[in-house]
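Hi P.,

Sorry for the delay on this. The queue was packed all week, but I finally got your sequence through. Input first:
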Amino acid sequence: MTVVEIGLSRNADRWANVGPFTFEYTVNVRELAFFWTNIFGCPDETSDDTVNILATYIGVERLLRTTTKEACLSLFKSFFFDYPRQKIRVNFGPTINPLLSYTIGMKINMQYAIGFCDKKVVYIDELACLPFLKSTPTVKHKLDIIGNQRMAMSSGSLNLGNLTGDLDFMKRLTLFNNDVIVYDLDDDARDEYTRDDLNATAYMLVNNVAPSAKEVGITLQDVRNTFNTKVPKDLFPASESLDDDLVNKPVPLCYGPCAVIPAICMNGKVKSGPVAYYSASGMTSLGDVQVLIGDTWTSVTPTGGPQLFTLSEADGRGGPDNDARACRLVGCVGKAISRITDIIVDLDNQASGMPPAVIADYYDVDEWNAEAATISTGGFYLAEQKPFLDVIKELQDGANKRFRYEINAENKRTIRIDDNDRAAIMFVPKEKILENETFEMETDREAVFANLEINYARNYEADSSLRVVDSSKQSEVIDSIRSAPTKSYDTLLQTEALALERAAREAEMLGRVWFFLTVTLIGREFKALRITDVIELELEDREWMGIWRAKVTELETKDIRTKTRLQLLERIPYEDENRILKVDHEGSIKVADTTDIIKVAK
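Then the structure:
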Protein backbone atom coordinates (compact mmCIF):
# COMPACT_ATOMS: atom_id res chain seq x y z
CA MET A 1 0.00 0.00 0.00
CA THR A 2 1.07 3.59 -0.57
CA VAL A 3 0.94 6.37 2.01
CA VAL A 4 1.48 10.05 1.16
CA GLU A 5 2.06 12.90 3.60
CA ILE A 6 1.45 16.45 2.36
CA GLY A 7 2.48 19.49 4.35
CA LEU A 8 -0.19 22.07 5.19
CA SER A 9 0.81 25.45 6.57
CA ARG A 10 0.03 26.69 10.06
CA ASN A 11 1.40 29.80 11.75
CA ALA A 12 2.98 29.34 15.16
CA ASP A 13 2.77 31.65 18.17
CA ARG A 14 2.98 31.29 21.98
CA TRP A 15 6.71 30.57 22.09
CA ALA A 16 8.63 29.86 25.30
CA ASN A 17 12.35 30.54 25.61
CA VAL A 18 14.34 27.37 26.46
CA GLY A 19 17.91 28.39 25.62
CA PRO A 20 20.09 30.97 23.85
CA PHE A 21 18.09 32.15 20.81
CA THR A 22 16.04 28.94 21.14
CA PHE A 23 12.30 28.71 21.74
CA GLU A 24 9.74 25.91 22.06
CA TYR A 25 6.15 25.71 20.89
CA THR A 26 3.61 23.03 21.77
CA VAL A 27 2.31 21.96 18.40
CA ASN A 28 -0.92 20.14 19.06
CA VAL A 29 -1.22 18.46 22.46
CA ARG A 30 -2.69 21.06 24.79
CA GLU A 31 -4.54 21.04 28.06
CA LEU A 32 -6.08 24.28 29.29
CA ALA A 33 -5.58 24.94 32.99
CA PHE A 34 -8.58 24.21 35.25
CA PHE A 35 -8.94 27.76 36.54
CA TRP A 36 -9.25 29.17 33.00
CA THR A 37 -12.28 27.04 32.17
CA ASN A 38 -13.95 27.01 35.61
CA ILE A 39 -13.19 30.45 37.02
CA PHE A 40 -12.84 32.64 33.96
CA GLY A 41 -15.17 30.61 31.74
CA CYS A 42 -12.75 30.30 28.82
CA PRO A 43 -13.63 27.75 26.12
CA ASP A 44 -11.84 24.44 26.57
CA GLU A 45 -9.07 24.15 23.94
CA THR A 46 -7.81 20.80 25.14
CA SER A 47 -6.54 18.64 22.30
CA ASP A 48 -4.71 15.31 22.17
CA ASP A 49 -4.42 14.93 18.40
CA THR A 50 -0.99 13.85 17.18
CA VAL A 51 0.57 15.59 14.20
CA ASN A 52 3.81 15.30 12.25
CA ILE A 53 5.80 18.40 11.26
CA LEU A 54 7.56 18.19 7.88
CA ALA A 55 9.19 21.62 7.67
CA THR A 56 9.40 25.04 9.31
CA TYR A 57 9.84 28.46 7.71
CA ILE A 58 10.58 31.97 8.91
CA GLY A 59 9.06 34.01 6.14
CA VAL A 60 10.53 32.50 2.96
CA GLU A 61 13.57 30.99 4.72
CA ARG A 62 13.43 27.24 5.23
CA LEU A 63 14.99 26.14 8.50
CA LEU A 64 17.38 23.23 8.80
CA ARG A 65 15.99 20.15 10.51
CA THR A 66 18.09 18.50 13.22
CA THR A 67 17.65 15.08 14.81
CA THR A 68 18.51 16.15 18.38
CA LYS A 69 17.70 19.04 20.70
CA GLU A 70 21.41 19.58 21.28
CA ALA A 71 22.11 20.03 17.56
CA CYS A 72 19.28 22.56 17.31
CA LEU A 73 20.67 24.50 20.26
CA SER A 74 24.05 24.86 18.55
CA LEU A 75 22.90 25.72 15.01
CA PHE A 76 21.24 29.01 14.06
CA LYS A 77 18.14 28.83 11.84
CA SER A 78 17.36 25.20 12.69
CA PHE A 79 14.48 23.28 14.25
CA PHE A 80 13.91 20.00 16.06
CA PHE A 81 10.50 18.31 16.26
CA ASP A 82 9.99 16.20 19.36
CA TYR A 83 7.31 13.87 18.02
CA PRO A 84 6.39 12.07 21.29
CA ARG A 85 6.09 15.38 23.19
CA GLN A 86 4.55 17.20 20.20
CA LYS A 87 6.87 20.15 20.74
CA ILE A 88 8.85 22.03 18.14
CA ARG A 89 12.13 23.68 19.14
CA VAL A 90 13.54 26.46 16.95
CA ASN A 91 16.90 28.21 17.11
CA PHE A 92 16.10 31.60 15.56
CA GLY A 93 19.62 32.98 15.79
CA PRO A 94 20.66 36.36 17.22
CA THR A 95 18.64 38.56 14.85
CA ILE A 96 15.12 37.22 15.45
CA ASN A 97 12.91 37.13 18.52
CA PRO A 98 9.65 35.22 17.88
CA LEU A 99 7.95 37.08 20.69
CA LEU A 100 8.28 40.20 18.55
CA SER A 101 7.65 38.52 15.20
CA TYR A 102 4.29 40.10 14.46
CA THR A 103 5.51 43.56 15.34
CA ILE A 104 8.06 43.33 12.51
CA GLY A 105 5.78 41.57 10.04
CA MET A 106 7.46 38.17 10.28
CA LYS A 107 5.52 34.91 10.40
CA ILE A 108 6.75 31.57 11.67
CA ASN A 109 5.17 28.86 9.57
CA MET A 110 5.04 25.11 10.18
CA GLN A 111 4.06 22.41 7.72
CA TYR A 112 2.01 19.83 9.54
CA ALA A 113 1.30 16.62 7.64
CA ILE A 114 -2.03 15.32 6.46
CA GLY A 115 -1.95 11.69 5.36
CA PHE A 116 -3.59 9.78 2.54
CA CYS A 117 -3.43 6.17 1.39
CA ASP A 118 -4.80 4.16 -1.50
CA LYS A 119 -6.62 1.20 0.07
CA LYS A 120 -8.09 1.68 3.55
CA VAL A 121 -8.04 3.96 6.55
CA VAL A 122 -4.80 3.43 8.47
CA TYR A 123 -3.28 5.18 11.48
CA ILE A 124 0.41 6.02 11.66
CA ASP A 125 1.13 6.68 15.34
CA GLU A 126 -2.45 8.01 15.66
CA LEU A 127 -2.17 10.13 12.49
CA ALA A 128 -5.18 9.15 10.37
CA CYS A 129 -4.49 8.49 6.68
CA LEU A 130 -7.69 8.55 4.65
CA PRO A 131 -8.11 6.39 1.50
CA PHE A 132 -8.49 9.33 -0.89
CA LEU A 133 -5.41 8.46 -2.95
CA LYS A 134 -6.85 7.37 -6.31
CA SER A 135 -3.67 5.62 -7.42
CA THR A 136 -0.02 5.38 -6.51
CA PRO A 137 1.80 8.64 -7.23
CA THR A 138 3.95 8.73 -10.34
CA VAL A 139 7.57 9.66 -9.70
CA LYS A 140 10.10 10.07 -12.53
CA HIS A 141 13.91 10.20 -12.39
CA LYS A 142 16.35 10.53 -15.26
CA LEU A 143 20.11 10.42 -15.89
CA ASP A 144 21.86 12.46 -18.56
CA ILE A 145 24.35 9.84 -19.74
CA ILE A 146 26.46 12.38 -21.66
CA GLY A 147 27.16 14.85 -18.89
CA ASN A 148 25.89 16.64 -15.83
CA GLN A 149 26.07 20.26 -16.98
CA ARG A 150 22.31 19.85 -17.16
CA MET A 151 20.61 18.83 -13.94
CA ALA A 152 18.24 15.92 -14.62
CA MET A 153 15.42 16.85 -12.26
CA SER A 154 12.92 14.43 -10.77
CA SER A 155 9.19 15.08 -11.18
CA GLY A 156 5.91 13.43 -10.32
CA SER A 157 2.16 13.70 -9.79
CA LEU A 158 -0.64 12.35 -7.62
CA ASN A 159 -4.45 12.44 -7.65
CA LEU A 160 -6.77 12.56 -4.65
CA GLY A 161 -10.44 11.70 -4.93
CA ASN A 162 -12.85 14.47 -3.87
CA LEU A 163 -16.32 13.21 -4.72
CA THR A 164 -17.38 13.67 -1.09
CA GLY A 165 -16.04 17.22 -0.92
CA ASP A 166 -13.74 16.45 2.01
CA LEU A 167 -10.83 18.12 0.20
CA ASP A 168 -12.63 21.29 -0.85
CA PHE A 169 -10.54 23.15 1.71
CA MET A 170 -7.55 22.77 -0.60
CA LYS A 171 -9.09 25.30 -2.97
CA ARG A 172 -8.34 27.96 -0.38
CA LEU A 173 -4.77 26.85 0.34
CA THR A 174 -1.47 27.82 -1.16
CA LEU A 175 0.65 24.69 -1.22
CA PHE A 176 3.48 25.74 -3.54
CA ASN A 177 6.81 24.22 -2.45
CA ASN A 178 5.23 22.41 0.48
CA ASP A 179 6.76 19.02 1.28
CA VAL A 180 5.39 15.71 0.01
CA ILE A 181 6.69 12.34 1.18
CA VAL A 182 5.71 9.09 -0.55
CA TYR A 183 5.95 5.89 1.51
CA ASP A 184 5.56 2.18 0.88
CA LEU A 185 3.68 0.31 3.62
CA ASP A 186 2.96 -3.39 4.08
CA ASP A 187 -0.70 -4.15 3.38
CA ASP A 188 -1.71 -6.57 6.10
CA ALA A 189 -4.60 -7.06 8.51
CA ARG A 190 -3.52 -4.16 10.69
CA ASP A 191 -4.96 -0.68 10.56
CA GLU A 192 -2.56 0.81 13.13
CA TYR A 193 1.12 1.27 12.33
CA THR A 194 4.11 3.14 13.68
CA ARG A 195 6.36 5.48 11.73
CA ASP A 196 9.01 2.78 11.76
CA ASP A 197 6.77 0.73 9.44
CA LEU A 198 6.96 3.41 6.74
CA ASN A 199 9.55 3.07 3.99
CA ALA A 200 10.12 6.40 2.23
CA THR A 201 10.40 6.05 -1.57
CA ALA A 202 10.38 9.72 -2.63
CA TYR A 203 10.74 13.17 -1.05
CA MET A 204 9.34 15.90 -3.28
CA LEU A 205 7.82 19.38 -3.18
CA VAL A 206 4.42 20.52 -4.43
CA ASN A 207 4.69 22.24 -7.80
CA ASN A 208 1.01 22.97 -8.48
CA VAL A 209 -2.44 22.06 -7.18
CA ALA A 210 -5.54 21.73 -9.37
CA PRO A 211 -8.63 21.04 -7.20
CA SER A 212 -12.03 20.22 -8.71
CA ALA A 213 -15.34 18.75 -7.59
CA LYS A 214 -14.15 15.22 -8.41
CA GLU A 215 -10.45 15.18 -7.58
CA VAL A 216 -7.41 17.16 -6.55
CA GLY A 217 -4.49 16.86 -8.94
CA ILE A 218 -1.06 17.71 -7.57
CA THR A 219 2.15 17.92 -9.59
CA LEU A 220 5.44 17.38 -7.81
CA GLN A 221 8.92 18.82 -8.30
CA ASP A 222 12.48 18.08 -7.28
CA VAL A 223 13.66 19.55 -3.96
CA ARG A 224 16.78 20.79 -5.78
CA ASN A 225 14.65 23.28 -7.72
CA THR A 226 14.54 25.44 -4.60
CA PHE A 227 18.33 25.77 -4.42
CA ASN A 228 18.21 29.23 -5.97
CA THR A 229 20.36 31.09 -3.44
CA LYS A 230 23.30 32.73 -5.19
CA VAL A 231 26.94 32.25 -4.21
CA PRO A 232 29.26 33.89 -3.33
CA LYS A 233 27.08 35.79 -0.87
CA ASP A 234 29.65 38.34 0.37
CA LEU A 235 29.91 41.59 -1.63
CA PHE A 236 32.57 44.29 -1.73
CA PRO A 237 31.35 47.37 0.23
CA ALA A 238 31.74 50.91 -1.06
CA SER A 239 34.93 52.70 0.00
CA GLU A 240 36.90 55.81 -0.91
CA SER A 241 39.62 53.80 -2.63
CA LEU A 242 37.73 50.94 -4.29
CA ASP A 243 36.85 51.35 -7.97
CA ASP A 244 33.14 52.01 -8.47
CA ASP A 245 32.70 49.02 -10.78
CA LEU A 246 33.69 46.66 -7.93
CA VAL A 247 31.23 47.99 -5.36
CA ASN A 248 28.55 45.37 -4.55
CA LYS A 249 30.33 42.83 -6.74
CA PRO A 250 30.91 39.39 -5.17
CA VAL A 251 34.02 38.63 -3.17
CA PRO A 252 35.63 35.74 -5.12
CA LEU A 253 35.87 32.22 -3.72
CA CYS A 254 38.77 29.89 -4.41
CA TYR A 255 39.15 26.19 -3.55
CA GLY A 256 42.08 23.86 -3.90
CA PRO A 257 45.14 24.26 -6.15
CA CYS A 258 44.56 26.54 -9.15
CA ALA A 259 46.82 27.16 -12.13
CA VAL A 260 46.11 30.90 -12.45
CA ILE A 261 43.58 33.30 -10.90
CA PRO A 262 43.37 37.11 -11.09
CA ALA A 263 43.97 39.36 -8.09
CA ILE A 264 41.64 42.32 -7.51
CA CYS A 265 42.98 45.83 -6.89
CA MET A 266 41.45 47.25 -3.71
CA ASN A 267 42.63 50.88 -4.03
CA GLY A 268 42.26 51.57 -7.74
CA LYS A 269 41.21 55.18 -7.14
CA VAL A 270 44.56 55.95 -5.55
CA LYS A 271 47.25 56.97 -8.05
CA SER A 272 50.35 56.78 -5.87
CA GLY A 273 51.94 54.63 -3.21
CA PRO A 274 51.64 50.86 -2.58
CA VAL A 275 48.86 48.88 -4.27
CA ALA A 276 46.54 46.64 -2.25
CA TYR A 277 45.20 43.45 -3.87
CA TYR A 278 42.68 40.85 -2.80
CA SER A 279 43.08 37.22 -3.86
CA ALA A 280 39.95 35.25 -2.82
CA SER A 281 38.02 34.21 0.25
CA GLY A 282 39.59 31.24 2.02
CA MET A 283 42.96 31.56 0.27
CA THR A 284 45.82 29.56 1.82
CA SER A 285 48.74 30.28 -0.53
CA LEU A 286 49.41 33.07 -3.05
CA GLY A 287 51.83 31.04 -5.15
CA ASP A 288 53.81 33.14 -7.63
CA VAL A 289 52.50 36.74 -7.69
CA GLN A 290 52.91 38.33 -11.14
CA VAL A 291 52.07 41.76 -12.59
CA LEU A 292 51.67 42.68 -16.25
CA ILE A 293 54.44 45.02 -17.43
CA GLY A 294 53.89 45.79 -21.09
CA ASP A 295 53.03 42.39 -22.56
CA THR A 296 55.03 40.39 -20.06
CA TRP A 297 53.93 38.81 -16.80
CA THR A 298 56.67 39.50 -14.27
CA SER A 299 57.07 37.93 -10.83
CA VAL A 300 57.07 40.33 -7.87
CA THR A 301 57.33 40.00 -4.09
CA PRO A 302 54.20 40.86 -2.05
CA THR A 303 53.83 41.68 1.60
CA GLY A 304 50.96 40.34 3.65
CA GLY A 305 48.51 37.76 2.39
CA PRO A 306 47.29 35.24 1.61
CA GLN A 307 43.95 37.01 1.08
CA LEU A 308 44.89 40.69 1.23
CA PHE A 309 48.41 41.56 0.11
CA THR A 310 50.34 44.66 -0.96
CA LEU A 311 52.81 45.45 -3.74
CA SER A 312 55.25 48.37 -3.64
CA GLU A 313 54.59 51.36 -5.88
CA ALA A 314 57.48 50.31 -8.13
CA ASP A 315 56.04 46.82 -8.61
CA GLY A 316 52.33 47.62 -8.57
CA ARG A 317 52.04 50.81 -10.63
CA GLY A 318 52.84 51.83 -14.17
CA GLY A 319 51.67 53.72 -17.23
CA PRO A 320 51.04 57.45 -17.76
CA ASP A 321 48.43 57.71 -14.96
CA ASN A 322 50.36 55.53 -12.53
CA ASP A 323 47.41 53.11 -12.45
CA ALA A 324 47.60 49.79 -10.65
CA ARG A 325 48.94 47.00 -12.82
CA ALA A 326 46.98 43.86 -13.61
CA CYS A 327 47.98 41.16 -11.15
CA ARG A 328 47.62 37.39 -11.16
CA LEU A 329 48.52 34.42 -8.93
CA VAL A 330 50.21 31.40 -10.53
CA GLY A 331 50.19 28.03 -8.76
CA CYS A 332 48.11 29.37 -5.89
CA VAL A 333 46.03 27.37 -3.42
CA GLY A 334 42.55 28.37 -2.30
CA LYS A 335 40.62 26.94 0.63
CA ALA A 336 42.02 23.53 1.48
CA ILE A 337 39.93 20.62 0.16
CA SER A 338 40.57 16.91 -0.13
CA ARG A 339 38.04 16.28 -2.89
CA ILE A 340 35.93 18.30 -5.31
CA THR A 341 32.83 17.15 -3.42
CA ASP A 342 34.10 19.12 -0.39
CA ILE A 343 33.38 22.30 -2.37
CA ILE A 344 29.67 21.42 -2.51
CA VAL A 345 29.57 20.95 1.27
CA ASP A 346 31.26 24.29 1.89
CA LEU A 347 29.07 26.17 -0.59
CA ASP A 348 25.97 24.58 0.95
CA ASN A 349 27.07 26.09 4.23
CA GLN A 350 27.17 29.53 2.59
CA ALA A 351 23.96 29.10 0.61
CA SER A 352 21.70 27.58 3.28
CA GLY A 353 23.56 27.59 6.58
CA MET A 354 24.21 23.86 6.35
CA PRO A 355 27.07 22.84 8.67
CA PRO A 356 30.41 22.82 6.77
CA ALA A 357 30.80 19.07 7.21
CA VAL A 358 29.07 15.90 6.10
CA ILE A 359 26.86 15.01 9.07
CA ALA A 360 23.99 12.56 9.38
CA ASP A 361 21.30 15.19 9.96
CA TYR A 362 21.63 16.47 6.42
CA TYR A 363 23.63 13.95 4.38
CA ASP A 364 23.46 10.25 3.66
CA VAL A 365 26.88 10.01 5.28
CA ASP A 366 27.70 6.41 4.35
CA GLU A 367 26.82 6.77 0.70
CA TRP A 368 28.30 10.25 0.35
CA ASN A 369 31.66 9.17 1.79
CA ALA A 370 31.73 5.91 -0.17
CA GLU A 371 31.02 7.63 -3.48
CA ALA A 372 33.34 10.56 -2.78
CA ALA A 373 36.23 8.26 -1.85
CA THR A 374 37.39 8.04 -5.49
CA ILE A 375 36.81 11.71 -6.34
CA SER A 376 40.06 13.65 -6.72
CA THR A 377 40.94 17.15 -5.59
CA GLY A 378 40.73 20.06 -8.01
CA GLY A 379 40.86 23.83 -8.32
CA PHE A 380 37.79 26.05 -8.52
CA TYR A 381 37.54 29.85 -8.68
CA LEU A 382 34.21 31.69 -8.55
CA ALA A 383 34.11 35.44 -9.07
CA GLU A 384 30.51 36.01 -10.21
CA GLN A 385 27.29 35.24 -8.42
CA LYS A 386 25.54 32.12 -9.67
CA PRO A 387 22.65 30.07 -8.32
CA PHE A 388 23.97 27.35 -6.05
CA LEU A 389 22.39 24.73 -8.32
CA ASP A 390 24.29 26.01 -11.36
CA VAL A 391 27.57 25.79 -9.47
CA ILE A 392 26.79 22.18 -8.52
CA LYS A 393 26.42 21.38 -12.24
CA GLU A 394 29.95 22.62 -12.91
CA LEU A 395 31.36 20.65 -10.00
CA GLN A 396 29.68 17.32 -10.76
CA ASP A 397 30.71 17.53 -14.42
CA GLY A 398 34.25 18.73 -13.69
CA ALA A 399 35.58 15.98 -11.43
CA ASN A 400 37.75 13.03 -12.40
CA LYS A 401 34.52 10.99 -12.44
CA ARG A 402 31.17 12.49 -13.39
CA PHE A 403 28.73 12.23 -10.51
CA ARG A 404 25.10 13.07 -9.78
CA TYR A 405 24.15 15.23 -6.78
CA GLU A 406 20.66 14.39 -5.53
CA ILE A 407 18.22 14.42 -2.64
CA ASN A 408 17.21 10.93 -1.58
CA ALA A 409 13.88 9.65 -0.25
CA GLU A 410 14.83 10.66 3.30
CA ASN A 411 15.47 14.26 2.19
CA LYS A 412 19.21 13.86 2.63
CA ARG A 413 21.92 15.05 0.28
CA THR A 414 23.98 12.43 -1.49
CA ILE A 415 26.00 11.80 -4.63
CA ARG A 416 26.11 8.92 -7.11
CA ILE A 417 29.02 8.32 -9.49
CA ASP A 418 28.07 7.39 -13.05
CA ASP A 419 29.95 4.10 -13.15
CA ASN A 420 29.47 1.19 -15.56
CA ASP A 421 31.56 -1.03 -13.28
CA ARG A 422 29.20 -0.91 -10.31
CA ALA A 423 28.34 -4.24 -8.74
CA ALA A 424 24.83 -5.42 -9.55
CA ILE A 425 22.42 -4.87 -6.66
CA MET A 426 19.75 -7.38 -7.71
CA PHE A 427 18.78 -10.08 -10.19
CA VAL A 428 15.55 -9.63 -12.17
CA PRO A 429 14.06 -12.92 -13.44
CA LYS A 430 12.21 -12.96 -16.74
CA GLU A 431 8.87 -13.43 -14.96
CA LYS A 432 9.20 -9.93 -13.46
CA ILE A 433 9.57 -8.20 -16.85
CA LEU A 434 6.24 -7.27 -18.45
CA GLU A 435 7.51 -6.87 -22.03
CA ASN A 436 10.08 -9.65 -22.02
CA GLU A 437 9.10 -11.00 -25.43
CA THR A 438 8.04 -7.70 -26.98
CA PHE A 439 10.61 -5.11 -25.90
CA GLU A 440 12.32 -2.98 -28.53
CA MET A 441 16.02 -2.19 -28.58
CA GLU A 442 17.20 1.31 -29.33
CA THR A 443 20.46 3.22 -29.67
CA ASP A 444 21.39 6.83 -28.93
CA ARG A 445 23.50 8.27 -31.73
CA GLU A 446 23.79 11.58 -29.84
CA ALA A 447 25.68 9.84 -27.03
CA VAL A 448 28.52 8.45 -29.17
CA PHE A 449 31.81 10.34 -29.58
CA ALA A 450 35.03 9.50 -31.40
CA ASN A 451 37.16 12.09 -29.63
CA LEU A 452 36.97 13.02 -25.95
CA GLU A 453 38.55 16.35 -25.00
CA ILE A 454 39.34 17.16 -21.38
CA ASN A 455 40.18 20.76 -20.50
CA TYR A 456 42.24 21.08 -17.33
CA ALA A 457 44.51 23.48 -15.39
CA ARG A 458 42.25 26.41 -16.18
CA ASN A 459 43.77 29.87 -16.31
CA TYR A 460 40.99 31.96 -14.78
CA GLU A 461 42.79 35.20 -15.59
CA ALA A 462 43.02 34.52 -19.34
CA ASP A 463 39.99 32.18 -19.48
CA SER A 464 41.99 29.41 -21.13
CA SER A 465 42.90 25.81 -20.31
CA LEU A 466 45.28 23.03 -21.20
CA ARG A 467 43.76 20.10 -23.07
CA VAL A 468 44.19 16.38 -23.65
CA VAL A 469 42.33 14.30 -26.25
CA ASP A 470 41.53 10.59 -26.25
CA SER A 471 40.85 9.27 -29.78
CA SER A 472 41.27 5.59 -28.96
CA LYS A 473 37.69 4.80 -30.03
CA GLN A 474 37.76 6.88 -33.22
CA SER A 475 38.03 3.96 -35.65
CA GLU A 476 35.27 2.01 -33.90
CA VAL A 477 32.96 5.04 -33.83
CA ILE A 478 33.56 5.90 -37.50
CA ASP A 479 32.73 2.30 -38.47
CA SER A 480 29.53 2.49 -36.45
CA ILE A 481 28.06 5.92 -37.26
CA ARG A 482 30.11 7.18 -40.25
CA SER A 483 31.17 10.34 -38.45
CA ALA A 484 33.69 11.39 -35.82
CA PRO A 485 31.98 13.73 -33.30
CA THR A 486 33.92 15.30 -30.43
CA LYS A 487 32.77 15.86 -26.87
CA SER A 488 34.57 18.40 -24.69
CA TYR A 489 34.48 18.68 -20.89
CA ASP A 490 35.63 21.64 -18.80
CA THR A 491 37.06 20.20 -15.61
CA LEU A 492 38.55 21.34 -12.32
CA LEU A 493 41.45 18.91 -12.70
CA GLN A 494 44.95 20.33 -12.40
CA THR A 495 47.31 17.63 -13.71
CA GLU A 496 47.77 16.01 -17.09
CA ALA A 497 47.68 12.56 -15.48
CA LEU A 498 44.20 13.14 -14.03
CA ALA A 499 43.02 14.65 -17.31
CA LEU A 500 44.26 11.63 -19.30
CA GLU A 501 42.55 9.31 -16.81
CA ARG A 502 39.28 11.20 -17.20
CA ALA A 503 39.60 11.19 -21.01
CA ALA A 504 40.16 7.44 -21.07
CA ARG A 505 37.16 6.92 -18.78
CA GLU A 506 34.91 9.00 -21.04
CA ALA A 507 36.17 7.12 -24.11
CA GLU A 508 35.08 3.83 -22.52
CA MET A 509 31.66 5.23 -21.56
CA LEU A 510 30.89 7.24 -24.71
CA GLY A 511 33.14 5.78 -27.40
CA ARG A 512 30.81 3.04 -28.60
CA VAL A 513 27.21 2.48 -29.57
CA TRP A 514 25.27 1.26 -26.55
CA PHE A 515 21.92 -0.50 -26.71
CA PHE A 516 19.02 0.60 -24.54
CA LEU A 517 15.67 -0.93 -23.76
CA THR A 518 12.66 0.24 -21.80
CA VAL A 519 10.83 -2.38 -19.75
CA THR A 520 8.29 -2.47 -16.95
CA LEU A 521 9.40 -4.32 -13.86
CA ILE A 522 6.62 -5.83 -11.75
CA GLY A 523 7.09 -5.86 -7.99
CA ARG A 524 7.35 -3.65 -4.92
CA GLU A 525 11.06 -4.37 -4.62
CA PHE A 526 11.79 -2.27 -7.70
CA LYS A 527 10.59 0.89 -5.97
CA ALA A 528 14.00 0.90 -4.30
CA LEU A 529 15.84 1.20 -7.64
CA ARG A 530 17.80 4.39 -8.20
CA ILE A 531 19.48 6.13 -11.09
CA THR A 532 22.96 4.66 -11.90
CA ASP A 533 22.12 1.36 -10.15
CA VAL A 534 23.36 -1.71 -12.02
CA ILE A 535 21.15 -4.80 -12.15
CA GLU A 536 21.24 -8.20 -13.79
CA LEU A 537 18.13 -9.15 -15.74
CA GLU A 538 17.03 -12.17 -17.69
CA LEU A 539 15.89 -11.37 -21.24
CA GLU A 540 13.80 -13.63 -23.45
CA ASP A 541 14.10 -11.93 -26.84
CA ARG A 542 15.74 -14.42 -29.27
CA GLU A 543 18.74 -12.31 -30.27
CA TRP A 544 19.20 -10.87 -26.80
CA MET A 545 18.39 -14.02 -24.83
CA GLY A 546 20.35 -14.42 -21.65
CA ILE A 547 21.37 -12.54 -18.55
CA TRP A 548 22.59 -8.97 -18.98
CA ARG A 549 24.24 -6.40 -16.74
CA ALA A 550 22.37 -3.12 -17.22
CA LYS A 551 22.54 0.41 -15.79
CA VAL A 552 19.39 2.27 -14.77
CA THR A 553 19.14 5.59 -16.64
CA GLU A 554 15.43 6.44 -16.19
CA LEU A 555 12.76 5.44 -13.68
CA GLU A 556 9.02 6.00 -13.55
CA THR A 557 7.36 4.34 -10.56
CA LYS A 558 3.60 3.82 -10.33
CA ASP A 559 1.93 1.27 -8.09
CA ILE A 560 3.89 -2.01 -8.29
CA ARG A 561 5.11 -1.18 -11.79
CA THR A 562 8.41 0.52 -12.39
CA LYS A 563 9.02 1.61 -15.97
CA THR A 564 12.76 1.54 -16.43
CA ARG A 565 15.12 2.57 -19.22
CA LEU A 566 18.26 0.48 -19.12
CA GLN A 567 21.63 0.76 -20.77
CA LEU A 568 22.80 -2.76 -21.61
CA LEU A 569 26.41 -3.08 -20.50
CA GLU A 570 27.36 -6.71 -21.12
CA ARG A 571 25.91 -10.17 -21.48
CA ILE A 572 26.78 -12.61 -18.71
CA PRO A 573 27.51 -16.11 -20.10
CA TYR A 574 25.63 -19.05 -18.68
CA GLU A 575 27.71 -21.29 -16.45
CA ASP A 576 28.02 -24.01 -19.12
CA GLU A 577 28.17 -21.67 -22.10
CA ASN A 578 30.98 -22.39 -24.62
CA ARG A 579 31.99 -25.46 -22.70
CA ILE A 580 32.02 -29.03 -23.99
CA LEU A 581 29.38 -31.54 -22.91
CA LYS A 582 30.41 -35.22 -22.86
CA VAL A 583 28.45 -38.36 -22.07
CA ASP A 584 30.30 -41.12 -20.20
CA HIS A 585 29.71 -44.86 -20.54
CA GLU A 586 27.03 -44.73 -17.83
CA GLY A 587 25.10 -42.01 -19.67
CA SER A 588 26.00 -39.19 -17.28
CA ILE A 589 26.58 -35.72 -18.79
CA LYS A 590 29.80 -34.02 -17.76
CA VAL A 591 31.20 -30.60 -18.55
CA ALA A 592 34.74 -29.94 -19.69
CA ASP A 593 36.81 -27.10 -21.08
CA THR A 594 38.73 -29.36 -23.48
CA THR A 595 38.24 -32.71 -25.19
CA ASP A 596 41.25 -34.12 -23.31
CA ILE A 597 39.55 -34.40 -19.94
CA ILE A 598 36.61 -36.60 -20.82
CA LYS A 599 36.50 -39.02 -23.71
CA VAL A 600 33.37 -39.78 -25.70
CA ALA A 601 32.00 -43.22 -24.88
CA LYS A 602 32.09 -45.70 -27.78
